[in-house]
Amino acid sequence: MTKDLRPPSIETAAIEWRDGVPCSTRFDDVYFSRDDGLQEARHVFIGHNRLAERFASAPAGSSFVIAETGFGTGLNFLAAWQAWAVSNPSDSSCLHFVSVERYPLAREDLGQALALWPELGDYAAELLEHYPPPVQGAHRLVLAGGRIRLTLFFGDVLEAWRELDFQADAWFLDGFAPSRNPRMWDQAAITALRGHSGPGTTLATFTAVGEVRRLLVNAGFNMRKTQGFRRKLEMLAGELPKGPEMGAGENLRPPHSIAIIGAGVAGTLLARNLAERGLAVTLIDQASDAGMAASGNCQGALYVKLGVEFNDQAKLGLSSLLFSQRYYAQSGGHCWHPTGLVQLAYNDVEAGRQARFTARNDYPAAILRAVDAIEASRMAGVPLPNGGLWFPSSGWLEPGKLCRALIRHPRIQQCFGFDVHRLTPCNGKWHVAGNGEQDVVADRVVICAGHLSPKLIPLPNEFRFRTIRGQVSHLPETSLNNPSVVLCGPGYINPAHEGTALAGATFDLHDHSPMLSVDSHRENLSMLAAMVPGLLKGPAAAIDPAVLEGKVAFRCTTHDYQPVAGPLTDPSGRALEGIDLFTGLGSKGLTYAPLLAEYLADRITGQPRCLPASLARRVATQRCHKRIATASETIGA
Q1: Dist CA 321 CA 136 (whole Å)
Q2: Cα–Cα distance between 154 and 141 in angstroms, integer?
Q3: From CA 285, how far away is CA 440, in angstroms rounded?
Q4: What is the spatial distance between Cα 369 and Cα 372, in angstroms, rounded to a whole number?
């Protein structure tokens, strides 16, 4: 029986070990051959898809896509990863592996199963380190320094193939036997599989069931029976004939060069992502270095406020949070401080919201859990009057340092002190004109200049963006009882670092001054005193706001407070060729930026997209156009 779980959790697999092999009690079937699971994976999937030779011939900067039905223990994935590492030495080519699993293994079971294969130990350890918690939806894991990208969908197979955007070069048709798991092998599943295949796509499966073969033949595959592995006498292999193919995806020819305008967290993350995929990137900013504007705070909290209802907005927030936590742990270096974070129930309204949140949702404790005031105080190392939600894998970042570290790559050309005035398409390229500087010319351009983005868009200013001033205050460590974790509420306070703790930020809709404001400092102090009484040593009034240091930055947000990432469209929805928009991240840029940079890089390079279709719509540029009244509406007015 399926457990009645609240979202976003998903039921994990029930495992029973029989003769040293993991078996599913739900399907009463083994996860891999009792004879030798790794050799079975190599025989059935690696060999019959001719992967060694195809991997070896993949050019630098290209990608190869394997799709799989039934991730299980991940053994097939690790076998493919090992074959790729042996066969393809390029540092810029990428193996994408797309897999679906309705009942994911718990991390402990996965580790026990993969421990059977010591030769895969290094690969298994990295997979386990990044293996996502059991929550519904798509998870993108970036492994082997970006040479391996795993899109792991926890949910129903038909939902996965409907939501994910990719075209497979090879299929691993796995999962349990058709007689035990018929939904994985029925007409609807095969039809969906065909929609993600193109000329030359190959497939292999351990089964030789006649109905499966018939469905694949009817879908257009040339199928053959061939020798199975050990006790299985026969298996199936096939290929989609090469020829004209309708509906080819966009961006089949990735650009050779790309210009990115804006060197904040969003721009530098995207630049590094594309450079590692082999593209030549020119990073443009009017400042003298990266991370000087809104991304230039000395500290920033990794935080997102998840909604009470698990809708698409909450799904995007959760996906962004999990991906950013993995990214910073892997690539943040000394800039990342995983202290944990408490979202405080700082007043009755917030306490009520958190009570509804915990009643309607079921998040694994590895993501968050409710804590009372006693436990929250113990975690923070300071007395707290309220409990809240504990995020153990969050923390804080030094964003400016991160930006400057990200751009140190041989394929990233830095173009600072360049004040962009105009973007012009000409002869299939974009010309970026500045203040007397020589134009930067590139195949594609991405605008990610924060609140300055609207003035750079080469369309009439019809976008629903808002600029919001925010000021943070730098508090001397000696002026407060320093928490050891990030504390969030109506504002936030980070643990002190190098003698200073950052608190803020104000939310100023009508103040556009770039200068530090004493009133804004006073507002931050009042917020902090109300959120965590006793955190400041002495009353807030005892600290002179006139002598505090801090920083003013301007956030760019949208009408619906959701970010923008994707092709720039005109009001009719038509995408302009070769130009993208990446902005509107508001105050949650550190959380949203890593996943959306990955998504935008996927789109630009024509590789499988990390965002499912429902979430891609949440960040599309089209929704941000101002609504223009029709002629009839104007006359009627």
Answers
A1: 14
A2: 13
A3: 12
A4: 10
Question: How many other C-beta atoms can be found within 10 angstroms of the C-beta atom of residue 285?
Answer: 28
Q: Which residues on adjacent β-strands are paired with residue 98?
A: 67, 151
Question: Three-class SS string for 117-151?
Answer: CHHHHHHHHHHHHHCCCCECEEEEEEEHHHCEEEE
Query: Which residue bears the tokens 């429902």?
Result: 614
Amino acid identity of residue 175, one-letter, is G
Give ∠ CA 309-315-320 in degrees, rounded to 5: 135
Cα(238)–Cα(14) distance, integer angstroms: 33
The Cα–Cα gap between 438 and 46 comes to: 51
| pLDDT one-digit tens code per residue, 45-94 | 999 999 999 999 999 889 999 999 999 999 999 999 999 999 977 888 99
- The owner of tokens 């394997």 is 66
Q: What is the rounded distance in angstroms from the CA atom of residue 580 to the CA atom of residue 266?
A: 13
Tokens of 513: 């001054």
* Residues 6+ away with beta carbon under 8 Å from 167: 65, 196, 197, 198, 201, 249, 608
Predicted confidence (pLDDT) per residue in 418-473, tens digit: 999 999 999 999 999 998 779 999 999 999 999 999 999 998 867 899 999 999 99
The domains found in the chain, sorted by start residue, are: 15-239 (3.40.50.150), 257-293+400-462+566-624 (3.50.50.60), 465-558 (3.30.9.10)
Name, in order, each residue with C-beta under 8 angstroms of 294's C-beta and a sequence gap of 6 or more: 264, 450, 451, 470, 553, 554, 555, 589
How many other CB atoms sit within 10 Å of the CB of residue 143?
Answer: 19
Alpha helices in 361-500 (DSSP H): 373-380, 399-406, 453-456
In this structure, the strands spanning 341-344 and 486-488 are: parallel
Report helix, strand or coil for 192. helix
Euclidean distance between CA atoms 592 and 319, whole angstroms: 9
512-521 burial, b for 16+ CB within 10 Å, e for fewer? eeeebbeebb
Copy the structure tokens of residue 344: 């405080």
